[in-house]
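Before relying on records like the one below, remember that each one covers exactly one chain. Contacts with other chains, cofactors or solvent are not represented anywhere in the record.
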Amino acid sequence: MKIVALNPPFLSHFSRESRSPAVAKSGTLYYPMWLAYAVGLLEKNGHEVMLIDAPAGNLSRETVAERVKQFDPGMVFIATSTPSIYNDVEVGAALKEACTDCFTVFVGVHVSALPCETLELNANIDAVAFSEFDMTLVELAEKLPSGRSDDLLASITGLAYRTSDGKSVKNEPRPFIEDLDVFPPVASVYKNHLNITPYFYGHSLHPLIVIMTGRGCPFRCTYCVVPQVLQGHRYRQRSIESIVEEFRYIHDNFPDVKEIMIEDDTLTANKKRCSDLSKALIERKLTRIPWSANSRADVDLETMRLMKSAGCRLFCVGFESGNQQILDNIRKGTKIPVIRQFVKDAKRAGIMIHGCFMVGNRGETRETLEETLRLAKQLSPDTAQFFPIMVYPGTSDYQYYEEKGWIVSDNFRDWITPEGLHSSTMSNPDLPYDELVSFCDRARREFYLRPSYMLFKAFQSLKNPAEAKRNIKAGLTLSKYLFRAALPKKKEKC
């Protein structure tokens, strides 16, 4: 079957696959990674697939529709996100009208949380492949050529679909994929389908390749949408050999790549595996390209030193709050003294840190906001981001704030500002959303405009030309937001 995988047009540099989809102030643009993994599996099963990333290519709806129409697919599967969902539905409906015989399927965290609600937004949308959708799409592609009856669609787990009489039905969930080695290396999909130049992480060297070595996260943070909605809380892991071979593929096929980013929710959840992977990369002499990973703030110095020897350059860490009670409230499972020791050890090991700080969590007060800013300055990671809490459908935080009546709007367009920046979706009467956004503006200025930080960055850039290029690119983009407020127009609850 001919299939189109589409990251649909919306705002320029809008990252659907970010944990908080938006246009990033750092200029970050995510790969359509989860689409690419599904593309690789579909191609492995004999299907002809075209992957289109419209935000990366600044492609219009008209251009995308023309490409899809010329390709004449039997199925189109479309990435979605909460802030862009109404746009995504419009794009999907337009493609259905342009290619009346193609079967339109939505995928992603938003539609996984609200599959039937999504189908009811437009009668032209045929189905939602919810949760981990790769094998659902493979089964669809195998069965659709024989007909599109209600009985056929009812037999596919992990699918919500529209019946012939217009009803929305959700089937039983599909079990998670246990053998992740079944996927071809996603880097090969990028090689065949994408121009990697537009993809950029503010904390990473450019150009970069983004891969995963496992799915699912064993931790239970109340806000985190991917494990709660898409991939579960059990960390399923690829074999070390398959990861090493993908590193080799990248070394051999992407001579200009400066970094590999491992986008597992928490690579360091299994420290022994981190050590085993590091030893394997060292033994195979695959340490030329530095790599980074998402990490918990609890890795020991010995493990970090081994990872550094294997090429680890940076950890992306969700510190979230400087107040221990708030960390406990959101089930973060970290302790501030351990966080402080982790940062000291990372600096001793020579691993940089990108720190994430989220405000507006359960129990937040004006005093705890200041505690978070103080901790950020004291930790002084290489880069930092401050953003108001974003509560997404399907998470326990969304349910908590909805029961409190603190969700700002039921209109998902309000999840971002008109230009695509993060807005806050939660407004505590004692700490309203506009105050959270203003605090993030101030925290960003105070963190980045410290004389000690600017001196550190200047020295880093002089010492390392690769870091200089990253600092200049991210700094120029960020500077547009440092001296002006990102405060959105005040919203009323619908």
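The two ends are 44 Å apart (CA to CA).
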